[in-house]
């Protein structure tokens, strides 16, 4: 069996920690077995490795999440990178083409698709393995896994069974999206299951759809023609057209940690970062990513979340409203993790007199990592090294850098930096338009950068 994890999301429901660059699956607020803070995606991959599925898993994602995934999981996990966001059917179709032409999977191989961030026991992933046998037994087009409901929720979709029962699975009659409480009670009485977004099919099922659309089966070719794929969800494009769908009940622990009130229920500690929570502040959580201390006095049943993107103080039960409240609020992400380290925006100003922007960042580069050999067209940068030692490449010359050194990088200057030990620097960008897209990469790997430079100075 092959697994495809879908990684997306814009990160509005867990603002201000999540943003367009850091969705909820990347927040390091859960505790792993070593009592270290870890993210949902790191937790899931640990569980997949426990059941022997880690090596057969790929992740379908967008360009904006590649460096975050590589930072948290390393480069061993294959990433299927969508050239543009076109909903779940194109993402899954591209992953199918990858498995078929790059992953050497046969058309008869079973592929299971699921979200990248379920908060579940390891038994959940063991149950997914049973989908392959269910497809063998029933000859169904699709096999789903649904969670046995524990209460009549209005937040989830329901998988509704056809009349008549089988021993350990159901024939699917239809789906009901987010019913009211009365209808949810009725559906539970009819043995309906929560739809947790897990389904399996034989690879040939999706490959045949690509053939019927006249699209290439080769991964690289399909990636180049990605815009020809219909912009539609897998549910509408495939599931609703399938003639024979079965579902497997899962009765273990499953929880959607998509809002602050549900996420804090699973956190091992009520405080992350600098601050004080008074003893009479019951059931209150503080998550502080800044160096400034935050004090919470006599406030119960609340979430206080502080990041470079903003500050949230909310009653926990009211916290799901944040997505609606923040609608229309648009700002650049103030913190991002990259495969080489991370950066945090410290200050931003626009000066109308000369129509210039000034952006100040604190940049952290992990030991042994390097920035690409690149240039900018619309800005200059001033770097002040504050910690660590490394090497700096500029227009063919490499020299050592140390704390106290100041580097001025003018527009069109090719430059790169490598951390021989963990480096911290303050970067000031000055230009007419300060955007992350203003980067022209020439070389990525440091040994190739050294080969491209003619001089090396001590």
Automatic annotation (TrEMBL):
Nucleotidyl transferase domain residues: 4-268
Domain Mannose-6-phosphate isomerase type II C-terminal, first and last residues per copy: 338-441
UniProt xrefs under Gene3D superfamilies: Jelly Rolls, Spore Coat Polysaccharide Biosynthesis Protein SpsA, Chain A
UniProt protein name: Sugar phosphate nucleotidyltransferase
Organism, as annotated: Sporolactobacillus mangiferae
Lineage per the UniProt record: Bacteria, Bacillati, Bacillota, Bacilli, Bacillales
């Amino acid at each position: 069996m092959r697994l495809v994890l879908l990684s997306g999301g814009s990160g509005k429901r867990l603002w201000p920690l999540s943003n367009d660059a850091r969705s909820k699956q990347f927040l390091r607020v859960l505790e792993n077995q070593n009592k270290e803070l870890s993210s949902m995606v790191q937790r899931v991959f640990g569980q997949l490795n426990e059941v022997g599925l880690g090596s057969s898993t790929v992740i379908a994602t967008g360009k904006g999440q590649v460096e975050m995934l590589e930072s948290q999981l390393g480069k061993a996990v294959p990433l299927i990178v969508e050239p543009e966001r076109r909903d779940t059917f194109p993402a899954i179709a591209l992953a199918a083409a990858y498995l078929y032409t790059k992953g050497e999977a046969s058309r008869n191989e079973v592929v299971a698709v699921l979200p990248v961030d379920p908060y579940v026991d390891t038994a959940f992933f063991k149950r997914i393995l049973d989908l392959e046998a269910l497809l063998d037994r029933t000859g169904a087009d699709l096999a789903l896994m649904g969670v046995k409901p524990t209460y009549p929720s209005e937040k989830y979709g329901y998988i509704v069974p056809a009349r008549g029962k089988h021993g350990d699975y159901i024939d699917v009659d239809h789906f009901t999206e987010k019913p009211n409480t009365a209808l949810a009670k009725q559906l539970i009485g009819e043995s309906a299951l929560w739809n947790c977004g897990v389904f399996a099919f034989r690879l040939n099922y999706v490959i045949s759809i690509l053939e019927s659309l006249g699209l290439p089966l080769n991964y690289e070719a399909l990636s180049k023609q990605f815009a020809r794929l219909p912009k539609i969800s897998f549910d509408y494009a495939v599931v609703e057209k399938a003639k024979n769908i079965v579902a497997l009940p899962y009765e273990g622990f499953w929880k959607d940690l998509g809002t602050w009130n549900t996420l804090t229920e699973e956190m091992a500690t009520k405080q992350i970062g600098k601050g004080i929570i008074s003893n009479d502040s019951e059931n209150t959580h503080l998550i502080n990513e800044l160096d400034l201390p935050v004090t919470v006095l006599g406030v119960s049943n609340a979430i206080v979340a502080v990041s470079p993107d903003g500050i949230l103080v909310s009653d926990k039960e009211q916290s799901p409203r944040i997505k609606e409240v923040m609608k229309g609020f648009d700002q650049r992400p103030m913190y991002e993790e990259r495969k080489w380290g991370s950066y945090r925006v410290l200050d931003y100003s626009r000066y109308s007199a000369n129509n210039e922007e000034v952006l100040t960042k604190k940049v952290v580069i992990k030991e042994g990592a390097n920035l690409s050999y690149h240039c900018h067209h619309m800005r200059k940068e001033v770097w002040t090294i504050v910690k660590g030692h490394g090497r700096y490449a500029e227009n063919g010359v490499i020299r050592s850098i140390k704390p106290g050194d100041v580097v001025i990088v003018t527009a069109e200057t090719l430059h790169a930096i490598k951390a021989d030990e963990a480096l911290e620097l303050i970067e000031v960008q000055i230009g007419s338009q300060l955007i992350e897209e203003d980067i022209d990469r020439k070389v990525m790997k440091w040994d190739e950068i050294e080969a491209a430079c003619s001089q090396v100075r001590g």
